[in-house]
Amino acid sequence: MFLFQNILNLIILLELFIMGDANQENNKYTILLPTYNEIDNLPIVVWLINKHMTESGYDFEIIIIDDGSPDGTLDAAKQLEGIYGKEKIVLRPREKKLGLGTAYIHGLNFAKGNFIIIMDADLSHHPKFIPKFIEKQMEEDFDVVSGSRYIENGGVHGWDFRRKLISRGANFLTQLLLRPRASDLTGSFRLYKKHVLQHLVNSCVSKGYVFQMEMIIRARQMDYTIGEVPISFVDRVYGESKLGGSEIFQFASGLLYLFATT
Amino acid sequence: MFFGTTLHYHYRLPLCLGYRSRHSDQTHTSKKKKFLKIIMTKLFEWLSALAILATIWISLLTNKVENSFSKEHPKLLLYTPLISLASFGLYAVFAVLYQTLNFNNCEEAAEELLKDINEAKTSLAFEGYKFPERP
């Protein structure tokens, strides 16, 4: 009887040791990169992710979800798969442009990591911030870590006065109406626990970049904890970035929708 | 029944106008027990606050509540909503302008990115990446 209890204790101790180890060391970070016509940017983003993740020693994989880009982004991705290996670069292309929300759901199906990082592949989000997101997450075991352009040490580059005014005005209005307790709602550089992202993606209905707004608002609504990291947003070096009437209309209707439903 | 009773927030409230349902599952949310709280949509919160303010204003205006202020400054009281709206508008304009003018420009980040791009290109070419030819 005594011996039996000793053995049982030993097993429990061993199990705790193994599980504790798993919690500390076996974190894996999956980076989802939805792309459309990013042949110039994609190799550089991947190279930078690899550099910063390898330097800081985190286990990671990159899932590239290309929506049938006509410029050959997929071929570029295949070359990168050849260079970095199938463990690091996972290609999950789709036939045609199907939208951001479904791209995340699609990518999530194949993600092996317990944390998911979402970012734009157009170099406006610098991969050097990813280790900072991870450190922030570990600080207080946050469910979501959101990059913010609007807090101290954050910012934007390449925006004229008009663009800045619209962005700040929209942010002011959002903060006033929704009181989201997160400073950057339309930014899309974020880290999520995998199950949290799954839960959020399934409960969000918006399209386009209002989707990013809804995700963080719903996260608050569901009592998930959110940490923030300042990021510098450098507007597209290659390619065109747009902010026209249709984007503003999209934003306004999204804001009203969230105002009335959350 | 109502005060001081600890109930989990998944306690179902009757669904009426303005109450939003919380579609969260227990397993993923915070572990703390919460007091029963009424969850309103932001729209409903705004409407309630406005209704309360309007009630106070109208009761003062029609002198339903005895007070010396409304007798001494009837004009001021009448225009209070307009004055507060205008001053809030002014505050909003200045706040947004201030934030816009102080929006960090990140010149260093842009320079660093250009350097990183060049480094990446050299390194990628060395590792065998073939950049597509541009016309």
TrEMBL record, chain A:
Q: Which reaction does it catalyse?
A: a di-trans,poly-cis-dolichyl phosphate + GDP-alpha-D-mannose = a di-trans,poly-cis-dolichyl beta-D-mannosyl phosphate + GDP
Which cellular compartments is it found in?
Endoplasmic reticulum
What the entry lists under Gene3D superfamilies is as follows: Spore Coat Polysaccharide Biosynthesis Protein SpsA, Chain A (3.90.550.10)
Q: Which GO terms describe its molecular function?
A: dolichyl-phosphate beta-D-mannosyltransferase activity; metal ion binding
Indicate whether Flavoprotein appears among the record's keywords. Answer: no
Gene Ontology cellular-component terms for this entry are:
endoplasmic reticulum membrane
Q: Which cofactor does it need?
A: Mn(2+); Ca(2+); Mg(2+)
Name the pathway it acts in: Protein modification; protein glycosylation
To which protein family does this belong? Belongs to the glycosyltransferase 2 family.
Q: PANTHER family per the record? A: DOLICHOL-PHOSPHATE MANNOSYLTRANSFERASE SUBUNIT 1
Q: What is the protein's given name?
A: Dolichol-phosphate mannosyltransferase subunit 1
For this protein's source organism, the top of the classification is:
Eukaryota, Metazoa, Ecdysozoa, Arthropoda, Hexapoda
From TrEMBL, chain B:
What keyword terms does UniProt attach to this protein?
Endoplasmic reticulum, Membrane, Transmembrane, Transmembrane helix
GO BP terms: namely: GPI anchor biosynthetic process
State its location(s).
Answer: Endoplasmic reticulum membrane
Tell me which GO cellular component terms the UniProt record holds. dolichol-phosphate-mannose synthase complex; endoplasmic reticulum membrane
Family note: Belongs to the DPM3 family.
Q: What does this protein do?
A: Stabilizer subunit of the dolichol-phosphate mannose (DPM) synthase complex; tethers catalytic subunit to the ER.
Quaternary structure, per UniProt, is:
Component of the dolichol-phosphate mannose (DPM) synthase complex.
The name under which this protein is listed is Dolichol-phosphate mannosyltransferase subunit 3
